[in-house]
Write a structure and sequence with these properties.
The protein is α/β, with parallel strands linked by helices and 356 residues long. It is 42% helix and 15% strand. The protein contains 11 helices and 12 strands. It has helices spanning 23-40, 61-70, 88-102, 117-121, 129-145, 184-193, 210-222, 244-259, 273-279, 291-305, 321-343; strands at 2-7, 44-47, 75-78, 81-82, 106-111, 150-152, 160-163, 176-180, 197-200, 232-240, 287-289, 309-313. Strands 1-2-3-5-8-9-10-12 form an 8-stranded parallel β-barrel, surrounded by 7 helices. It has a two-stranded antiparallel ribbon with strand order 6-7. α3 (88-102) links the parallel β4 and β5. The longest helix has 23 residues, at 321-343. The chain starts with a strand and ends in a 13-residue tail after the last helix.
Length: 356
């Protein structure tokens, strides 16, 4: 089982100054988190893509390239690439270049996005939300299969007739996951195509996701895909402290700030301390607590959902860098060794070495 971290690069208002956090400093902090995760032996680092003033990173490939130069083994993924508003040719080129820089450590997690800013920015009609994603996914899969000779036609992009998409990646193919938020049609698409699925769960009881996961695997099996290709990743809000109570006391103000509704969209929700604590119970999606508590929750998710990868969003809500680094260290030194030992096959090490 793989363990890693994810950042969405959200920018928050500094309570001491009333000013928005500096995007340059924020990006450099994110790079430092990925380097720390690599040095501590975690398996994967993911970086989100957004196109509003509330986030620092619009093109994950650029910071990931800086991270690639400063790391040696951790896998580097977009989380997610907003494929609906991207050119699949350019996306493949960007991540193939990143794959060459990182010597074969790159992945794409592609998704539709729950935010509308990118659609307005890149001139994609929201009426075509699913159709344009499905078409661009088909093109990305075509390029991925044989970038040296791409022949393709669709509605939303000019045709390609035997064109070459350069450069080729360092890996035989760029690993591609589908990022989903729980929409049944997205789950079904991932299964039908036999692609690994990255499931984002930010609230509720994780047992409610089991029917979706079972449907994904059933659809994939019916389509003839082997079980080892139907891998499941899970991401969500994460913070670990020395004690359960201390972790929750420390992180609650930042979590409350992160999820509260903000202009101009008003997206979000208000949460009280009792609701926050209730979200962190053993079957709750919120991963906040002591090392043992987090170990138990990850193993529970392995049992209930069969997850192959867990990625914790470690730096939400303007968490200070020292708190984030401390959380990463505890994940790598006190949680990961136990998870790997518990899930190690007989005679094995429990260490993940390869990815789809």
């Amino acid at each position: 089982m793989e363990l890693g971290i994810i950042s969405l690069s959200d920018l928050q208002t500094d309570p001491a100054t009333g000013k928005l956090h500096d995007p340059g400093r924020r990006t450099r902090e994110i790079v430092s988190y990925a380097i720390a995760a690599d040095q501590a032996g975690l398996d994967v680092f993911g970086l989100g893509e957004h196109h509003s003033w509330d986030f620092a990173v619009a093109n994950p490939a650029v910071p990931l390239a800086a991270i690639a130069q400063a790391t040696g083994r951790i896998r580097l993924a977009s989380a997610v690439s907003v494929l609906s508003t991207a050119d699949p040719v350019r996306l493949h080129q960007d991540f193939a270049s990143l794959d060459l820089i990182s010597e074969g450590r790159t992945e794409i997690i592609a998704g539709r996005s729950a935010f509308v800013e990118a659609f307005r920015l890149f001139g994609v009609d929201l009426e075509d939300y699913d159709d344009v994603f499905a078409e661009k996914l088909r093109l990305l899969l075509t390029i991925r299969e044989n970038p040296e000779h791409v022949t393709w036609r669709g509605r939303f992009r000019p045709a390609m007739d035997g064109l070459s998409v350069q450069p080729p990646p360092g890996q035989p193919q760029l690993p591609l996951w589908l990022g989903v938020g729980g929409t049944p049609s997205s789950v079904e698409r991932a299964g039908r195509l036999g692609l690994p699925m990255a499931l984002g769960l930010i609230g509720g009881d994780i047992r409610r996701a089991r029917p979706l996961v079972e449907h994904y695997r059933a659809v994939g099996t019916a389509a003839g895909h082997p079980a080892h290709r139907l891998r499941l990743g899970r991401s969500g809000h994460f913070y670990v402290g020395r004690t359960s109570q201390g972790a929750r006391d420390d992180v609650f103000p930042y979590y409350k700030e992160y999820v509260r509704p903000k202009p101009p969209t008003g997206r979000g929700f208000h949460i009280g301390r009792a609701e926050f604590d209730a979200a962190a119970v053993p079957f709750g999606a919120l991963m906040v607590g002591s090392p043992q508590e987090i170990i138990d929750k990850i193993l529970t998710e392995r049992e209930v959902l069969g997850i192959d990868r867990y990625m914790g969003q470690v730096d939400f809500g303007g968490l200070p860098a020292d708190m984030v680094h401390g959380s990463i260290e505890l994940l790598a030194t006190e949680i990961a060794p136990v998870i790997r030992r518990e899930l190690a096959p007989p005679g094995g090490t429990g260490r993940s070495l390869t990815n789809s």
